[in-house]
């Protein structure tokens, strides 16, 4: 009897290995587990528990060869024999190649991992070009056990559908739970210390995922990322219209003789494209042909050719409108693709290409804009509520959308998922959230620039540790100051910002008082020596605010939205200085823009500087759902406005408002304090010394600045000037290169100059620069600053010296 059971299990394993669809793979694996009486509730979910049972039950030569491969991979020191993340629970949204590959890494680390996929089938026939290290990685996981043709001979490509099938089988063997027809909606915060993070899914009554509690959430569902809180930017170049199509491969003798085209461009083979245009009137820039389960073609077509062939009905300057469904003739598009495929393969006139079907049951041919590529501004976030933290990460096209015909999409996707697994490991080791974020964002800066040529050559040594893959991996190229806004917490870490070092102890945020750190938003209660006086002054400020904003039909009683969208603050500025702000132009649904306008006015017109770190902290607090947190951040801004406008010269401000005179010369002395030249330099030096001694050489806190102004002592103008300048004045908000406005969240500071990240390029060759690989050149006569890569900086310096000698 035991022999029969063993034979049955091996036969079921063979059926599982040969399954070729999403549904049959899941069903055959369930049958396999039932045959060997596996109960997941008994054996557990983490620490590779399922895999250990399978290796002991399945003993065929094919299964043993797979176990050998996986055991070798799982023996890497980072995994700690499957115990590195034994207490972690991970949820991955999306069962694409990158999502499934990351699930495998989580299982190897020992975490429990659930993958949810809104579809119930793998239907993407598009073929991926594989970088060498990906071929090595998949071989080491036993890909050839499930797909014998993988990487045979000179073949360096595979269809997305086939790759998903391979990775799905490996993930199931390692204990990953995968559920189809499940759509992720949003996360659910824990409302008490007894609860953990969960998510809202559809269907809501799913027996497993609806109650699943996790501490890591991964977005792997493509460019339409469903995880909230991640901002994306679009890279768009000159219009390039791409066409992809898949034809059924019947494996006939003629089809076997078709020669693949790994990639040919018009500039390298003009004769090919000239003959194509003469014979078919099709004008292409390039074409790629791979032969796999389907005949896969990808080509870039000229717009005029598509118009002439009737594929595009009307010409529009907007790419989205040009390629909209109602402006494309699908019949002519299929005919266009067939003619190009017949010419590229040199098939006989009797041969007819037959389209494969997509997941909608239609012909698998698509046309789209190649040049529209998205990337996420940041790769990670950490949110903490009631002592429960969640690490949110993006991978694949959700993180960085690349030009995939060259293989960079899957190549960078795998690199990114390894980096993500490394962050999960650090998070599981209870490293401080800010340190985890600093390292993840620092490595993310390297990702887009990675190629097979500039990464390490020994692919067998690759692991989730970035140092094994990147040539120059700097895990601290980002500072804590730059990523602080990515950590949304109801407890405040103590940070040594000067040394980019995190001190692990934390102080819980309470309604009465919070630990003060000069890089964090100042406590509104620090205006007074006693808490009762501070509370009284807070009530006075809120009453003053309420009296003003009532005339603007803004209600701030038991309503935090007016503070969150910045309208209450802007109303106060408009009430006293209508010449500074157009209140009617403000939009409640654009809070970031409103805060940008407010901070610009406070800095440039009112001489109330808030440095960038404080601005980010205030905006992040305003986006919180915790009422007390919003109130504390609101009082910081209100106190600055209160002490400025509600001064001893309040009547003079009202007089100016009634006359609507925009002249700054009659404004309050508070404005003039920071603009008058200081004659008494001895007072400045004395005050500076005293400040440094009292604050241990740290920047004067905003609360001290507010308290000083509220004093109303006009005789100490020198001290006022010193306080304002010590509050690290904010840099201009216009890009050093393109001179366009830089929003708060996009600030990128280099050598005290603010610029867009995309503008930080070599002045000579326009190579994208990073903070770790640039050089500054200052012209000796003009003082002009320019940034260069190291090669061109050296050449530039030599030219400057030569010119100087000639002038002499």
Automatic annotation (TrEMBL):
Residues 498-535, 651-698 are annotated as: Disordered. Residues 733-799 form the LIM zinc-binding domain. Residues 522-532, 680-697 have a biased composition (Low complexity). Its cofactor is FAD. Residues 535-646 form the Calponin-homology (CH) domain. Keywords: Actin-binding, Cytoplasm, FAD, Flavoprotein, LIM domain, Metal-binding, Monooxygenase, NADP, Oxidoreductase, Zinc. It is found in: Cytoplasm. GO terms for cellular component: cytoplasm. PROSITE patterns: CH, LIM_DOMAIN_2. Signal peptide: none annotated. Belongs to the Mical family. This is F-actin monooxygenase. It comes from Rotaria sordida.
């Amino acid at each position: 009897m035991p022999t029969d059971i063993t034979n049955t299990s091996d036969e079921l394993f063979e059926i599982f290995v040969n399954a070729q669809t999403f549904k049959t793979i899941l069903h055959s694996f369930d049958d396999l587990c039932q045959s060997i009486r596996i109960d997941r509730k008994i054996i557990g979910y983490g620490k590779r528990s399922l895999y250990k049972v399978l290796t002991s039950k399945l003993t065929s030569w094919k299964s043993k060869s797979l176990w050998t491969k996986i055991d070798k991979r799982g023996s890497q020191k980072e995994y700690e024999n499957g115990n590195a993340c034994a207490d972690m629970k991970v949820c991955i949204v999306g069962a694409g190649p990158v999502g499934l590959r990351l699930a495998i890494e989580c299982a190897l680390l020992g975490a429990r991992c659930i993958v949810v996929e809104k579809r119930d089938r793998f239907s993407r026939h598009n073929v991926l070009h594989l970088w060498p290290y990906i071929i090595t990685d998949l071989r080491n996981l036993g890909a050839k056990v499930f797909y014998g043709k993988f990487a045979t001979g000179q073949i360096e490509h595979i269809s997305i559908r086939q790759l998903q099938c391979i990775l799905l089988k490996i993930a199931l063997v390692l204990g990953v739970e995968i559920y189809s027809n499940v759509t992720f909606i949003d996360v659910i915060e824990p409302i008490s210390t007894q609860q953990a993070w969960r998510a809202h899914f559809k269907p809501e009554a799913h027996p497993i995922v609806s109650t699943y509690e996790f501490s890591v959430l991964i977005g792997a569902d493509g460019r339409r990322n469903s995880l909230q809180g991640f901002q994306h930017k679009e890279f768009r170049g000159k219009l390039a219209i791409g066409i992809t199509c898949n034809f059924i491969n019947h494996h006939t003798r003629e089809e076997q003789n078709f020669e693949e085209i790994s990639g040919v461009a018009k500039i390298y083979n003009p004769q090919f494209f000239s003959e194509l245009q003469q014979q078919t009137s099709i004008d292409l820039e390039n074409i790629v042909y791979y032969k796999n389960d389907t005949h896969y073609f990808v080509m870039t077509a000229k717009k005029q050719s598509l118009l002439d062939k009737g594929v595009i009905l009307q010409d529009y300057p907007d790419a989205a409108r040009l390629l909209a469904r109602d402006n494309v003739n699908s019949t002519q598009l299929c005919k266009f693709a067939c003619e190009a495929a017949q010419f590229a393969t040199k098939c006989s006139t009797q041969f007819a290409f037959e389209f494969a079907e997509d997941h909608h049951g239609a012909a698998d041919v698509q046309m789209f804009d190649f040049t529209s590529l998205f990337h996420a501004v940041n790769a990670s976030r950490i949110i903490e509520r009631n002592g429960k933290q969640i690490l949110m990460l993006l991978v694949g096209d959700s993180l960085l959308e690349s030009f995939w015909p060259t293989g960079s999409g899957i190549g960078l996707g795998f690199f990114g998922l390894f980096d993500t697994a490394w962050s999960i490991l650090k998070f599981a080791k209870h490293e401080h959230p800010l340190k985890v974020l600093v390292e993840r964002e620092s490595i993310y800066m390297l990702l887009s620039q990675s190629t097979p040529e500039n990464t390490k050559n020994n692919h067998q040594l690759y692991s989730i540790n970035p140092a094994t893959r990147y040539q120059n991996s700097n895990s601290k190229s980002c500072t804590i100051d730059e990523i602080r806004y990515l950590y949304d917490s109801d407890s405040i870490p103590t940070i040594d910002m000067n040394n980019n070092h995190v001190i692990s102890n934390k102080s819980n945020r309470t309604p009465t008082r919070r630990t003060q750190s000069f890089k964090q938003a100042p406590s509104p209660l620090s205006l007074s020596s006693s808490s009762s006086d501070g509370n009284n002054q807070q009530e006075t400020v809120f009453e003053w605010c309420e009296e003003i904003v009532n005339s603007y039909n803004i209600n701030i009683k038991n309503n935090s939205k007016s503070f969150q969208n910045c309208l209450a603050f802007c109303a106060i500025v408009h009430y006293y200085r209508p010449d500074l702000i157009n209140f009617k132009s403000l939009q409640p649904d654009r809070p970031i823009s409103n805060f940008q306008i407010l901070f610009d006015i406070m800095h440039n017109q009112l001489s109330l500087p808030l440095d960038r770190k404080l601005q980010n902290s205030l905006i992040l607090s305003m986006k919180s759902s915790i009422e007390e947190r919003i109130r504390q951040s609101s009082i910081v801004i209100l106190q600055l406005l209160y002490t400025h406008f509600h001064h001893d010269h309040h009547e003079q401000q009202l007089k100016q408002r009634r006359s609507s005179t925009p002249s700054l010369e009659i404004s309050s002395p508070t404005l003039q304090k920071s603009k008058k030249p200081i004659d008494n330099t001895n007072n400045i030096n004395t005050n500076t010394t005293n400040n440094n001694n009292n604050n241990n050489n740290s920047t004067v806190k905003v609360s001290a600045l507010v308290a000083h102004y509220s004093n109303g002592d006009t005789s100490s103008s020198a001290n006022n000037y010193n306080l304002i300048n010590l509050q690290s004045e904010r840099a201009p908000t216009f890009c050093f290169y393109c001179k366009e406005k830089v929003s708060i969240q996009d600030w990128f500071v280099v050598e005290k100059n603010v610029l867009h990240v995309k503008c930080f390029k070599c002045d000579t060759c326009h190579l994208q620069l990073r903070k770790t690989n640039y050089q500054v050149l200052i012209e000796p006569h003009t003082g002009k600053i320019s940034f260069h890569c190291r090669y061109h900086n050296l050449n530039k310096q030599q030219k400057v010296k030569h010119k100087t000698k000639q002038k002499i």
